[in-house]
Amino acid sequence: MEKKEFIRYISLFLLGLFFILSVVETSYAYYGEGDCAHEHEIVYIDVPLDSDANIILDGNPTENFWKKESNQKGNMLIKLSERKIGTEIPEIHNLNITFIMNDNYIYILCIWEDSTPEFEDGNFKDGLAFCWNINAPNFSAYYAQNDMNTANMGGGRVDAWRWNYDDLNSRGEVHYVLDDCFDDEGWISPSEPGRDIKAAYNYSETDKSYYLEIERKLITGEIFDVQFGDKKAYKFNLALFNDNQYEDHAISWTYALDLGEDNLISGFFITLIASSMIVVLIIISIYIIRQKID
Predict the structure, then answer these.
(1) Is the pLDDT of residue 75 over 50?
(2) pLDDT per residue as tens digits for the range 122-144
(3) What is the tens place of the pLDDT at every residue in 166-194?
(4) Domain coordinates of the chain in residue numbers?
(5) N or C: which end of the chain has fewer CB within 10 A?
(6) What is d(CA 250, CA 212) in angstroms, rounded to the nearest whole number?
(7) pLDDT tens sequence across 214-249
């Protein structure tokens, strides 16, 4: 085998691998009619603890802790899929998200593209929602028949944060995020509205994107809230609203904030990487054998 031929084989393999990874990443963002956890491993996000982090809520991520190199492990590009109708290929949306904690608060930065910003027509609005598992034994990103309940998860409660664009809130202005909860019977109506989650947004005309900063205490003491006080994984999924509402939105698969001692890596990608390395080693072995024969 000539050296040029060997290089050509390696190049073709790498191009093929790149194509497979891109297809897999996109196809795995599509959601179906059931718990997707059996199709892929849950993606864990390691949240950095930065005791010096102190946010100024204005929708402009100019604070140094957002850019600090050691905090970049809290950053993730999350894909969200619109609903598949018939044979139509769902559109995939990208959300760049960063999680950072200090001793008392969790800070979240969300960035996503939207070419028609600040849309509001009755209940049709731009928005972003988090669903955090509180104690559902089989939490997933699948909600049967679009009903927000945990009946298919074995019961338990889920903490739902919902930010929507509202023309009453100006860019850079601090306001509260709607904080709800649902269980196996549906939405729960707490006696008092939640005042634990603050946010501020901005919009960049340069990259046509929303910038949303969120702040919440790690521990609120409310039974309807997720409490970030234990060293464990906190499962969640996201929904993105673009000029729409309710079931007409894009959703992510299940992710988890890893606040434990050790981080977990998706078993699917470990298998894929190991298989790729084996193929490369086989190609190199064939090349060496051919060289000896020649």
Answers:
(1) yes
(2) 888 999 999 999 999 999 887 76
(3) 989 999 999 999 999 999 999 997 656 56
(4) 1-30+264-294, 40-263
(5) C
(6) 17
(7) 999 999 999 999 999 999 999 999 999 988 765 568
For residues 96-116, average pLDDT: 97
What sign does the dihedral 274-280-286-287 (CA atoms) show? negative
Q: Which CATH number fits domain 40-263: 2.60.40.1190, 3.40.50.1000, 3.30.43.20, 3.40.50.20?
A: 2.60.40.1190
